[in-house]
Write a structure and sequence with these properties.
heterodimer, A: alpha/beta, Rossmann fold, 4-stranded antiparallel sheet, 24% strand, B: 317 residues, mainly alpha, two-stranded antiparallel sheet, 2 strands, globular
Chain lengths: 244, 317
Amino acid sequence: MALLEARGLSMAFGGLQALRGVDIAIEARQVVGLLGPNGSGKTTLFNILSGLLRPTTGEARFDGARLTTLPPWEISRLGIGRTFQIARPFAHSTVWDNVLVGVTFRARRGPRAALERRREVERLLATVGLLDKARATAGELSLGERKRLELAMALSTRPTLLLLDELASGLSPRGREEVMGFYGQLRGEGLTIFAIEHSARVLSRVADRLLVLDQGTVVADGRPEQVLASTRLVEAYLGEDDEP
Amino acid sequence: MPRGGLIATGLVGLALILLPPLSGFHPYYLYLVSTGLLFGTLATSWNILAYAGQVSFGHAAFVGLGGYGAALASLHGLSPWAAIALGGGLGAAGAVIIGLASGRLQGASLALATLAYAEMWRAIAQNWDEVTGGGAGLIGIPALPTLPWPSPDVSGGRAGGYYLSLALLASVLAVFAGILRSRLGLALAAIREEEERAGLLGVHPLPWKLLAFGLSGFWSALAGGLYVHTVRVVEPDLVFSLHFSILPLVMATFGGVGTLLGPAGAALGLYLASELFLHPYVPAFHQLPYALALIVVALYAPGGLGTLFRRRRHGAA
């Protein structure tokens, strides 16, 4: 059975049909990339899978549990973490506290011992290279640092499935290389990853499989080389890969 | 500041706080300072809720529920101490009820709902004659029992009320200090900053917000209960007055929302400036300090005075 399975997901915002009967199945430990032009419904799909939106029709299941009726905190506790395309840390809180929230509340009975929580926050901040910024407020961080904090926050709930929304976009070539390193590291740790990236080139390097959404419909699903080999598809749906 | 300096400053501060009743303060001034301390409790209670990002325009509801609850219980023979505690419980329950609205309402909508809630209770107290005494209110509320120390001769018997107001303020400050270092504080800060994101990190916002409402309502209601046992009368327009809703907001905003001592310090400073220096000489302008405080915050200190001195907190783990 797939770890994540969606059947017939549709989402309408008034007259705008953002998703039209999307079917997805993602196996455990897979890294799946999600491509598509702006407005194709990628983030809407992530919002449904993380509990921020209820689909108009259809349902999604994670590890057998029905997601589409659960609030975000229940979904988080089931083991789904996510990042946002535009980083949304708690801007007035310290970097430390940003990560501590997930470590503390990831389960009804999260780690009780302060020392245990402290060690875990230190480990997560070290993983993303922000340990030396622990005392800074999140609002003081650079874009690249905020993206890394996003990742640490998503990991703080100990997810088994990570929804990564354009972790590499807007970063310098060096920043994007760092993100590629994170993808490799997370794959090595056995996490299942469902990732949106603006750059098809970035995704093709890390993903086992690519999905392409257009106007709310899955128009391609396959190995990266197969999907990207379709010149017509790349031109029609992905456009030029404008990031160097 | 070195450790010795901190201890010395603390001791001087403690002496300044404890001495007024013992140093022959006129009972009227002692009453004013006691009321200022009650406003300090109220502003700190308001601040507990604001720390969760919930702005209240209706804390008079909790003061009034505490005041009427304590007065009625006292008049029916309960000891004033138990009556005040009962009033506190009533205020907490009343706060949790309006707190349920925070599951759906945020920001200005929630603030207006709390304002309407306080007005609703004022209207009930005004019209439920057989229980609340209607617009005339209730009189003859028993005085607080005399404390074993200091003697009733000191400062005309007002010393007990002063120390009780001081203890109430100290207790709410201790609770808020504990909140800042606890899971509750971490949850409330996350909810304040971005409720949706907090939810994605496993924080179920409503129970934490209800806890903040309950704590805030409880201490506001205790202040209300103590107040009516000090003035020994309770009326709808006295305890459900808009003053008890708006002044804590102004005081906490001036002192620094989210800071530990700012709201209480601002409450004492603004209330005493108003009552000691303006009310006796230019009564028409006695509200001026509150208006000036808001102007200062708007122009020069957006986070309030307390944030100018606040050290960054690191980790609640």
